[in-house]
């Protein structure tokens, strides 16, 4: 369960800021793109997602998703707000669990039980995933080293390989050369003293209030596979700050 919880945090981070379709005319540059600098690739990618100004202007995000993993079917209502407030309310085959990050501490609420504080390792993972902005908007400020590691083929098309290094994890993002949307992401690290790997693919991009969002995500890792589809999504709708405070559900 702990491994799945951590994986869900990673997956949601990717889902929330999945990239956009590239602007018209960018395809003509494909024959030169193997020589693009890291910053140029990042700038084009962020432009494809909706532009730096739009991304930085977003204040809240709400999304409802349906996840299938084996026999488990999970409906999740997620709410996010700047700078690092997150709430996930999940129903898996009738079992309800909520995860809340109040800006400092992560909490888990199972069924009608009282909130329990996450341990140090899970709290750190929740805190990382709670950051509202895409890390590529300010990797240095987030303590993340980014490098461009050439081009690899993903789903039959060339993609730039961006390697993001954190203290506990290496993350690789593959940015399609033609559209500049993210088509794949991989993770490798350790959790609870055990190594883990995870691969996520993104498709079905749609404009949500000026920001492009992947509406279909598939993943596999450590022998598990699953997929997530977005049912509804919205940016900048009002969210009551109280939802980010842990509380015992009413019976």
Model description:
- With about 250 residues, this protein is of the alpha+beta class.
- The protein has one domain: outer membrane lipoprotein receptor (LolB), chain A, CATH 2.50.20.
- The protein contains four helices and 13 strands.
- The chain has helices spanning about 1-15, 40-50, 50-55, 120-130; strands at about 60-70, 70-80, 85-90, 95-100, 105-110, 115, 145-155, 155-165, 170-175, 180-190, 195-210, 210-220, 225-235.
- A 13-stranded antiparallel beta sheet has the order 6-5-4-3-2-1-13-12-11-10-9-8-7, with helices on one face.
- A hairpin with a 2-residue loop joins strand 7 and strand 8 (about 155-165).
- Helix 1 (about 1-15) runs parallel beside helix 4.
- It is globular and about 55 Å long.
- It starts with a helix and ends in a 16-residue tail after the last strand.
Pick out the low-confidence regions.
1-31
Classified in CATH, the superfamily is: Lipoprotein localisation LolA/LolB/LppX
Which structural category fits the helices and strands? Answer: alpha+beta
Oligomer: single chain
What is the element layout, followed by pairings?
Layout: H1 2-16, H2 38-49, H3 52-57, E1 60-69, E2 72-81, E3 85-92, E4 95-101, E5 106-110, E6 116-117, H4 120-130, E7 145-154, E8 157-165, E9 169-176, E10 182-191, E11 194-208, E12 211-221, E13 224-235
Antiparallel strand pairs: 1-2, 1-13, 2-3, 3-4, 4-5, 5-6, 7-8, 8-9, 9-10, 10-11, 11-12, 12-13
Signal peptide: 1-22
Protein name: Outer membrane lipoprotein-sorting protein
Keywords: Signal
